[in-house]
TrEMBL record:
Top-level taxonomic group: Bacteria
Stored InterPro entries: FAD-bd_PCMH (IPR016166), FAD-bd_PCMH-like_sf (IPR036318), FAD-bd_PCMH_sub1 (IPR016167), FAD-bd_PCMH_sub2 (IPR016169), FAD-linked_Oxidoreductase (IPR050416), Luciferase-like_dom (IPR011251), Luciferase-like_sf (IPR036661), Oxid_FAD_bind_N (IPR006094)
Presence of the UniProt keyword Flavoprotein in the record: yes
Domain (FAD-binding PCMH-type) ranges: 346-522
Species this chain originates from: Agrococcus pavilionensis RW1
Taxonomic placement: Bacteria, Bacillati, Actinomycetota, Actinomycetes, Micrococcales
Protein name: FAD-binding PCMH-type domain-containing protein
Family statement drawn from the similarity comment of this UniProt entry: Belongs to the oxygen-dependent FAD-linked oxidoreductase family.
Pfam (any one): Bac_luciferase
């Protein structure tokens, strides 16, 4: 039975501590020689050995390419929850080079002497099954809540999950007896016996038992890789198994691969000469012989995804036709990386595939393939820079996501002009950190995880906005991949109409891959968090608006209110950035705000701009369902507007409400200079709700009548009319004409879609 797995070769090294450097040198030699895997037996009770886990950790730093594994870890002396964290940590630190071999235990007298529980063979199998459930549960950070398992031998009571390994970390099981073989078929990623412990026919019987158990569990038989520890010696004359010239080794290992399904041969060798001869004279010949025979037989290679994952594929997509340049980084449902990429910050998604191009040319290839699959018509297409957008349109269900995180370079183009080139896949937190080294900043989102591409094509109402303008006002040029796959540059002098449209409606026009932007000198700034008793809500909001408008441009406040708490006063929190470093100046600019209403809390610090937006933990997005938000742009917070906003808050349809200050430098830019045309707005208002109907009813009645515009990045209402709210008639007509030119087939439509003007499509 040949399962079609790739033929690989490893070494089994004794972790001797006399001299302690020997196993390290042998592992490094194995890496230089080209071995795929270095493994080490694990006997914590053996004083002549190094501790295997310590050795593996050391080797993680002392090697660069070779994979590492215990062969096999002594489970009775390694608590499974801790073992899970240790394995995941080592996998992360080595960039996905770790594999976990597990055994049920042996040498029980020695184990008991070390404090381990003495188990019968049957108990050992049960304990191993419990341990695997715990280990995989710790690794599965997609599940919410703590991990609980009340086993006979291993227990966890709400253990926190994580860290998540860097890759689908395989568990290889050392198994010989029927119950262990069945467990391997149900739960294992690999079978790892030693040839010296086997009798003739044991491999066939073991494979049959594993396959029967795997099939019963609904698994593809090829999901269990077959590894084999082997030992032997090179001799001039053929003798017993693996006792002879390289040609004998080649013949016997080829037979083990083609007839018994073994695919990874781990040679037990502490002899450098044997290691070198094996990898140079035997390994290439075995690979060639197996490849030739598989070619004649038509053996299908084992896939990288389990059978259950393949069933999650979208029927609308032809996965086999994904361009070769994109297949290595493409992420499909069921793959290890998929849970980290399927959702956005607020929205849950289940895309059919996530394509991760590493260049503008690959973005063009991704778009070409998307068009072939029917994107823009029957297949959703989403573009993602970081997935933080409130609208959540950078994911979908069953369609294609083009994810740009690899396009994240940040380069200084001209220091004298503070001109920087920023990849669309970078995050604003990283941009702020890089620019801070030069004493510069670009006003951006209020959170470090916001992606450059999404914000810099929509607007960017940030903490330095009243002084520096919107994020789009810093843009000198944009590199854009259009719907036809061509890469163009848009600036004042090159494709000026596209340059105009990309600054405010870019998500409808193409895929921005890089921006040239001018930073501003920014040193330490003041950042205040003031908490107010806002029980007199209308009066408070009116005062907040008036103080904000009267403030110097170097002051940009944001105001937050959560849902009301029973029998508690309404609290409003202001976050205020002051672009000044002198403490007296900072406090002076804050005095008027502090007098708006009774303060119930306050904190003022000096920080870099990077420190201000470094305000939340990172990690994968865990959005669920559809976010429910509404957004408007408004002018002054007049008494009438303040009363309307207060009545909205009293309606209780929200759980989060925010007012962001605009005006100042934002209003200095002419309304027709960018596709973001509502330059006269002084505030952006947004609310989150749990119930779409309740939020819309309260918003439409109380807030929307006072709107002067709409910022689409904060909006999730898909009813007609939102485009007309976001873009004045002349702006929208101009955008539709531009859309007809650059995207006549309306490929980029899975958003607040600006349809191309029909009369202008050839």
């Amino acid at each position: 039975m040949d399962y079609g797995h790739e033929i690989e070769f490893g070494v089994f090294i004794t972790p001797t501590n006399a001299p302690a450097e020997q196993p390290v040198r042998l592992a490094q030699l194995a890496e230089r020689l080209g071995y795929d895997l270095a493994t080490f037996q694990d006997h914590p009770y053996q004083p002549a050995f190094l501790d295997t886990w310590t050795l593996l950790s050391y080797l993680g730093a002392a090697t660069e390419r070779i994979r590492l594994a215990p062969n096999v870890a002594n489970l009775p002396l390694r608590q499974p929850a801790v073992l899970a964290r240790s394995a995941a940590s080592l996998d992360l630190l080595t960039g996905g080079r770790f594999e976990l071999g597990l055994g049920s235990g042996g040498f029980w007298d020695a184990i008991a002497a070390m404090g381990g529980e003495r188990l019968t063979p049957g108990q050992g199998v049960d304990a191993l099954a419990e341990a695997i459930a715990i280990i995989r549960g710790i690794w599965d950070t997609t599940e919410r809540g703590g991990l609980r398992l009340d086993g006979e031998h291993h227990r966890v009571a709400g253990a926190k999950r994580g860290p998540r390994p860097a890759h689908r970390l395989p568990i290889h099981i050392g198994a010989y007896k029927p119950r262990m073989l069945r467990l391997t078929g149900r739960l294992g990623d690999g079978w790892l016996p030693s040839l010296g412990y086997l009798q003739p026919g044991d491999l066939a019987r073991g494979n049959a038992a594993i396959d029967a158990a795997a099939e019963k569990a609904g698994r593809d038989l090829r999901e269990v890789k077959r590894l084999l520890n082997i030992g032997g010696a090179f001799r001039d004359v053929a003798g017993g198994p693996l006792q002879g010239p390289p040609s004998q080794w080649e013949r016997e290992l080829t037979e083990l691969a083609l007839e018994d399904g073994m695919s990874t041969f781990i040679v037990m060798a502490d002899d450098p000469a044997l290691m070198q001869r094996f990898i140079e004279e035997v390994a290439p010949a075995v690979r060639a012989a197996v490849a030739a025979e598989r070619g004649e037989r038509g053996t299908e290679p084992a896939g990288s995804l389990p059978a259950a994952a393949l069933r999650l594929r979208s029927e609308a997509l032809d996965y086999a036709s994904i361009p070769a340049s994109l297949t290595a980084t493409a992420v499909e449902p069921g793959s290890w990386e998929y849970p980290e990429l399927q959702n956005t910050y607020l929205r849950g998604g289940a895309p059919g595939v996530v394509l991760r191009p590493t260049s503008a040319a690959q973005v063009g290839e991704a778009l070409a393939w998307a068009r072939e699959q029917g994107a823009g018509e029957r297949v959703p297409l989403s573009i993602r820079s970081a997935g933080h957008g409130i609208s959540g349109r950078s994911t979908n269900d069953g369609g294609i996501v083009i994810e740009l995180s690899a396009l994240d370079r940040i380069d200084v183009v001209d220091a004298s002009r503070r001109l920087v080139r920023i990849g669309a896949g970078a995050t604003w937190g990283r941009v702020a950190t890089v620019l801070d080294e030069h004493g510069w900043a670009i006003s951006s989102g209020d959170y470090r995880g916001v992606g450059v591409g999404g914000l810099a094509t929509a607007g960017g109402v940030g903490f330095l906005g009243r002084e520096h303008g919107l994020t789009i006002d810093h843009i000198e040029a944009v590199e854009v991949v259009l719907a036809d796959g061509s890469l163009v540059r848009a600036s004042r002098d090159e494709r000026p109409e596209l340059y105009w449209g990309m600054r405010g409606a870019g998500g409808n026009l193409g895929v921005a891959v890089a921006f040239e932007m001018v930073a501003r000198p920014v040193g330490e700034i003041g950042f205040a968090q003031l908490a107010f008793d806002a029980s007199e809500t209308a009066d408070f909001l009116e005062r907040f608006g008036a103080v904000t408008e009267a403030s110097d441009r170097i002051v940009t406040p944001f105001l937050l209110l959560g849902g009301d708490r029973p029998r508690q006063p309404r609290i409003a929190q202001a976050m205020i950035a002051v672009d000044a470093s002198d403490p007296e100046s900072i406090v002076g600019h804050l005095q008027a705000f502090a007098a708006i209403a009774p303060l119930v809390g306050q904190q003022v610090v000096r920080s870099s701009y990077a420190g201000v937006i470094d305000n939340a933990p990172g990690g994968a997005h865990r959005g669920q369902g559809e976010p429910t938000t509404r957004s408007v742009l408004i002018g002054s917070i007049t008494p009438e507007v303040a009363r309307a906003l207060a009545r909205f808050l009293d309606a209780g349809a929200h759980y989060f409400f925010q007012i962001r200050a605009m005006g100042g430098a934002i209003a200095d830019v002419p309304a027709d200079a960018t596709a973001f045309a509502h330059r006269d707005a002084k505030f952006s208002v947004i609310a989150f709700g749990a119930d779409r109907t309740r939020l819309d009813a309260a918003w439409d009645t109380l807030v929307a009548p006072h709107a002067t515009g709409l910022y689409l990045s904060f909006e999730t209402d898909q009813r007609p009319g939102r485009l007309e709210d976001a873009f004045p008639p002349a702006t929208l007509a101009r955008l539709r004409a531009l859309k007809a030119e650059v995207d006549p087939d309306n490929l980029f439509r899975d958003n607040f879609n600006i349809a191309p003007a029909p009369s202008l499509i050839e």
